[in-house]
Queue: 4 jobs
Job 1
Amino acid sequence: MALSHSQVARGLAGIAAAAVLCCAAQAGAQPMQVPDTLAERTRACTACHGKEGRATREGYFPRIAGKPAGYLFNQLINFREGRRSNAAMTYLVQHLSDAYLQEIADYFASLDLPYAPPPPLAAPAAVAALGETLAQRGDPARKLPACVACHGATLTGVAPAMPGLLGLPRDYAIAQFGAWRTGQRQAASPDCMAEIAQRLTREDISAAAAWLASRPLPANAKPAGSHRQPLPMRCGSDPDARPR
């Protein structure tokens, strides 16, 4: 059976590492000691998501630092169980236990780090106005709740499992809406975001993503501790915050 490129690359990396250790042993040098910390063990995460999980300049890999632990844990589970589709993420988490995934989620959730300033809004005034309306007020006629109804009044998320929407690149947000519309991204049932994505037009998605990406973060960008009002619809990914 032919080996894939990634298998060959991993094999070569292993051979190179073994050679380095062998040479070090022959020279009488001590092997490098790596501290057993979550910061070290999550280097595979920060290789894509940026230093300390702050996101990368390219913009497609989102920030994970400071996101609610419940949200991060849910996404790791979704990748492991196939509800979200990303080969690299699935490869990393497919054999990890719930307990270890919770450790990873708790670690990144604990990082309180500053955000980079947002890019200027590159959209016509009418598009920006539509994006702001959807985010702040929604569209009751189409049963579209406002983003703030679930993601918090400041759009920085709500514990235990609602993520913030600010600080996300426009293209990334558009891609996630597209993934929900096509079923490539799913959450535990009832999947409220999949329902919402089906009610949005392409113009809605583009406008909301552009407006959200241009918003500056408030001085306190931490997720809120709880929702002020009952959620407008059931969300399986946040069972503790279902409508009461």
Job 2
Amino acid sequence: MKKIISLSILLFFISCGGSDAEGDGSKNDSNDFPNHVDSNNLRIFARKGVSTTFLNNVGTAYSEMFKENSSIDQSMKTKYLSTSKDQYVYQRVGLDGMASDPSFNSGTPPKPYGDNATDYIWEMNTGGADQIGEVIEHLLHTVTTVILYLAYPDWNYKNLTSPLYLAMREAVDKNIYDISSYSDLKNDEAYERIITQEYAYWLILSEWNYYVVAGKKGDGMTGNEEFTIGTSIEIESQLPLGHKLYKDYVEKILSIPSKDNIISLFP
């Protein structure tokens, strides 16, 4: 979303780029990231001050996305998980507000981790829908902009004829996805990454019927001002390219996280 775009671009240029969560807040050889957990071949690094409970719960939230169901394609899931492991993909977690400090830097993880990460997840002072939205959004940014991008040539924000980009354009052309707030980034190298990243997040949130749980539903609509539809039925009927993209990739790898479980992690 727009409020985190400037920081997202900063982090992109600095770091551009299946087991259950360990749940032990393991110590690291990094001054910037003293703790971590592993979840489904994703290492989740935490800055100093992040609570062990929150760090572990982020790992558990990610694990919720990997429960078995009849739609999973085991070969695609295996490729996704092996890509995440082999490419040393990681997620960063910090304290809300720390990025406003003029001395803030995105941090350097211990080797061999280095390039393949995107946004931070911020631990807030309180839980609820805003915290859930923060966690789900930025985990999905890592899923789509990093792991799917590395694993599948068709999931390519740099290719303007890729299924991902064409599905995004479908939503823009139908006035469902409003990218006008990103217009000041058009000359930026990160522009296509940002607009497809946000599109993929809204698409998945809609297919999961997660707008209310994540605190993203606008008044008088199923979606919000940036992405106006917010249900799987609407996606299927109004955005056939987007629905196909979801069915061909996301649904074959991820499961819809239990809403009750996610709410219990971030009360």
Job 3
Amino acid sequence: MIITKIQLRNWKNFGDATAFCGKRVFLIGPNASGKSNFLDALRFLRDVAQDGIKKAVDIRGGMKAVRFLCVRRPPQINITVNLDDTWEYSLSFTSDNKGEPRVTNEYVDFKVDGEINRILQRPDAEDDKDAMRLTQTALQQVNMNKDFRDIADFFKSISYRHILPQLVRDPKNFSPVPSINDPYGRDLVSQIWNTPVKTRDSRLKKINDVLIIAVPQLSNLKVEQDKSTGIPHLAVTYEHWRPHAGNQNEASFSDGTLRLLTLLWTIFNAEGPLLLEEPELSLHEEIVKKLPGIFAQLDKTRKRASRQIFITTHSEAMLSVPGIGGNEVLILEPYYEGTKIRSANEDECRTIEDGLSVAEVLLPKTRPSHIEQLTLFSVL
């Protein structure tokens, strides 16, 4: 199952935007155009399915933080997602007089032989009898999502990664409370350690094969438990000019090594759509050029179903890869009435098919206007 279409109305940067998605999606646009907010709409659906709409809104700072800023009155926020061109799930909500989220419309459609069947429509008669029911979505309730639980499970499978190497190195220094599925990498080492040994060793071997090419001095990647503390650590053999630098754990890994290792592990470690935030950070551009191919190759080796991947990027190196088509790119364009999302047009796609790269054809169109004035800036 993959996401084939997303519609956002009154969500953060987006007043009214629609995006069509394939198996691989690259999101490009100027800074603050809404690339992260686009990914967060998908994360929001995951959080609603897992923990409910109130918590999903609260962890983002409340209704004011998720509501589109440019509207003149309190709007309904709407997120509608099509899956495999078969399912359609739509959630609309606004705030009540206490500022809490309240469902205003929720529906599920299922298409069979071209005919659309509506499986869920809210508010319904029961909601009319008890308005408190609208403080919860049907998506989050097992007694209501029986007929479309595949959708709830799919949303729960969405994973987001924006690795902060310092959190991987020293997670307790940032939070004494153990984290689970932390998008920033605090639980990376424990995730690897808690994976069944046979599966873990197989994955680490494949990751090691990639790392020794990207980091030639590194080899023999494994995970070990410290006998004195019981805390697991990554371990590598590292050839170095220093006589005692041969064995290192994650505390000594470079930012680039930790980012690449985490990205590779993430490809293996879960199902469902994978949302990656600027995976090129800290990596040499020659490695960045190979990332799309590495992701695709590792995905093929998974015993589970292949994964849909969304990648936000500013990287010319990544987008210079010849295999990236114009139909795989979403271009975010900010306007005074909110960010618009568009795909490459026919002329742009034709130019890419004729031999130019996405980096050459589309990336220049995301540069801020009047960017040349930065060279005139001076501090008096």
Job 4
Amino acid sequence: MPYVLDARVVGDENHVRFVVDTSTPLAAAVFGLADPYRIVIDLPEVRFVLPDSAGNDGRALVSAFRYGVISAGKSRVVIDLTGPVAIEKQFVVPPADGQPARLVLDLVPTTRAKFLAAAQSYRDSHAAPDTGAASATAPAGDTGKPLVMLDPGHGGIDSGTRGSGGVLEKDVVLAFAKVLGDKLTATNRYRVAYTRTDDTYVSLGDRVKVARDQHAALFLSVHVNSFPTGAVRGTIVYTVSDAASDKMAAALADSENRSDALAGIDVKAEDSDQVKDILLDLTQRETRNFGVAFAQALVRHLGKTTLMFKVPHQQASFKVLEAPDVPSALIELGYISNPEDEKELTSPAWQASVADTMVGAIDGYFQKETAATFVTGAANP
């Protein structure tokens, strides 16, 4: 597998050069996306061996950049821009005299109109860029059992938040989701599927789509939280609502909803009026009520085994919870910015204990008469 050895930004407000050092010359597809302004570099699958701090600091026209897997066989670098730019030059330098191969982009300021025209021209002449489409397959087993869809947040190019000890959210939530999935499967009462099972990115829309396509009876998105001071800790369960519980819940939803933009996905192209058109539909209202019932069950059970936030059930407008026909909730397992929470979140014993408790909450949810009626199809024909 090819390596990316380094990436750096040089230049000034009039001209910036973005350089990627690679172990072998690599072909790249490069295109722009607006709102926010980004340059996306799609590569074949590579191994990134850059320092953890790479991309945090930009220069002149570039504010930052990030990198990672976007889908099977494909890696991506996303460059955040301070404004519209034009790609003046794009070329590959072969290795020579002990120096690695290089992919070079020269960027210069341009107008918004010219940036948008270039982005549209690329879309018109190329197939739609890969958005990390969900590839989960239908789980084996008795189709009469309810399907629980587990959604480990972030992944691939989108690392999520980072703990005080350097632990990445995408790794913590994937590990926990697998523990929870194994325990649910072991009960022999559920089928379990995942929106992702490895370190790849899946767009928010595709996470919703795979749950709907497989007729999931329950959707649980798994995340961890962070806070600047590091003093805040505890578990929070969220359900979807057009109105957020408070400013903190609204800010969290905004942050989670930016995942697609961070991954270099054309958010406007991904948006659909399908969900918006049925926000007031009775099916979705009932679905949201089931989501709230599930969240309340989680809060009741989790309070017995782990520290809960002072307001443990909150609501906000999370895109990943907007399936009109799948009851859903999003759990922030803890604050990875807090050393005590981070220690627990990465503890196999804590993960197992909390997963056991969540299995109990899921059992209780499905045992309720209203939930049982929903699962058998009265509310989801």
